[in-house]
Amino acid sequence: MMLNLSQRQTLQMKLTPQQVQYLQLLQLPVLALEQRIKAELEMNPLLEEVDEADLLQEQEEIKSEPEIDNETAEKSDPDESYSIEDFMNDDLDGYKVSQHYVSNEDREEFPQASEVTLLQKLRDQVIFLDLNEEEKILSEEIIGNIDEDGYLRRDLSLIVQDLNLSQNLNISLEQAESVLKKIQRLDPPGIASRNLQECLIVQLEVGDYDPELTELALKILRDYFNDFSMKHYEDLAKNLGITMEKLKSVLELIQKLNPKPGEGQINPQQNYIIPDFIVESDNGDFIITLNDRNVPPLRINKKYKELISRRSKNGVSDGVKDFIKKRFESAKWFIASINQRRETMMKVMRAIVEKQRQFFETGENLKPMIYKDIAELINMDISTISRVVNGKYVQTEYGVYELRHFFSDKLTTTSGEEISNKEVKKIIKEIIHILDEEIKLACHMHKMMQEDTRIGFEAANQYFFTVNDMMEKVLNCCRIKNLLLNVDK
Q1: How far apart (Å, rounded) are the C-alpha atoms in residues 323 and 304?
Q2: Residue range 453-468: average pLDDT?
């Protein structure tokens, strides 16, 4: 066999530590950013907060402010000033940026954070499950009995028994088990499990893990759960016929699972959304505010600069010089990263408002939009848009929305109109609600006719006009016709 040597040239792009820091800050939501800044202030003595009084009176001058050279973002201004407002004065037509860091007396409180509980998220997902009317009632009862850790502690047979007696239903235990399994596979997977064993098994069944490790993990949880709980690892390896090294990999997979899928999400007091942006209308324009009122303006600590200036004449040790230099550079880069993060966040949010202007005006009619659309509009990389969008929220006049809400694929009707798939889902939910009301009225009429024939005829007359009214709303809804009859498959 002959060995040959060959050369080839490849082009790779490596990020500098400063670029990595900027990208890390960019993907942080507002609360995490506040904690990150607090940690940096504790670690770097050359970094300090700027008091509001000082900010109004002076501008901190820093020579040779660094620029973050990144293809996925705009470069920072080469201006030597680190005033927060430097990045907030580039308003576009129809879009205004609110001023920041004014006195407390002049500040307006941001809207109260909205709460979104896990139970409500589950109810929203249940709508799209294939359930009949009785099963929907059961699903609501199951969700209502989930505890703060995400477990269904009440016996399922008792839930079924109570429902059948109190609401005159006819739900079998097998039917209830089927509904429970569907709920357990919602997001987060494993929710509404009755014990830890069931919770972990569900997560493995719906998760995207290594097939071989998943099969072994499921066998452990189903057949050898007691040995697993007692940490009898040698017995597990022997029973499974695998090496200890392989068992270690399987156990590592199980350890990645969430033993408490509802922890910190059931109690609404522990699960508030703090919006990263505020969008308000103002005489046809939109005022876009970055919700960083608790993010302080930063500057280089003057005392350290003066200390170095005084001691430079008398001589300073190399160790002190090196320490100060590193901390000084670190502080400059951190300030530059914070400023560039703010600039990028605002550019992306302005672009979203521009593309979805009709939604911000009316609260309806989302347009199809993907990350690429925003990236092309503001000349940034798609990965940058993704970092800005993920985990961020915006407060609008119609509620608090995750930024991902404004992105969706498109459906095309036979007339060539492009419609967001989220609008389709919204219409389907409306139809389901109307049909649910019709079924409830029909059941009510049937029950009254059984009890009293005269009352039954009155109920039938009322039912006829009520259903006609609802169906007229459905048939007159042009969006339903376009979406359900003309959408290309």
Answers
A1: 12
A2: 52
Token pair, residue 164, equals: 């059948």
CA atoms of 226 and 241, how far apart (whole Å) = 18
- Residues 219-270 have pLDDT tens digits of 999 999 999 999 899 999 999 999 999 999 999 999 999 999 987 665 544 4
| pTM (predicted TM-score) | 0.49
Q: Interior CA angle at 364 toward 362 and 368, to 5°?
A: 125
Closest CA to 113 of 347, 1, 245, 278: 278
The yes-or-no verdict on residue 475 having pLDDT over 90 is no
Give phi and psi for 44, each to the nearest 5.
-115, 105
**431 or 22, which is more confident:** 22
Instruction: Look at the chain and count its residues.
Output: 489
Assigned token pair, 347? 């550019």
Rg (CA), the chain: 30
Token pair of 332 as six digits: 């400059």
Residue range 357-399, pLDDT digits in tens: 999 998 888 888 888 999 999 999 988 998 999 889 999 998 8
Higher-scoring residue by pLDDT: 325, 269: 325
> Which has more confidence, 88 or 270?
270
How far the first Cα of the chain sits from its last, in Å, is: 57
Q: In the numeric block, which tokens belong to residue 250? A: 């399987």
- Relative to beta strand 272-273, strand 114-115 is antiparallel
Position 206 pLDDT exceeds 50: yes
**Percent with pLDDT over 70 in the chain:** 63
Higher pLDDT, 226 or 124: 226
Question: Do the Cβ atoms of 388 and 341 come closer than 8 Å?
Answer: no
pLDDT at 476 over 80: no
Q: At what angle do helices 244-255 and 211-223 cross, to 10 degrees?
A: 80
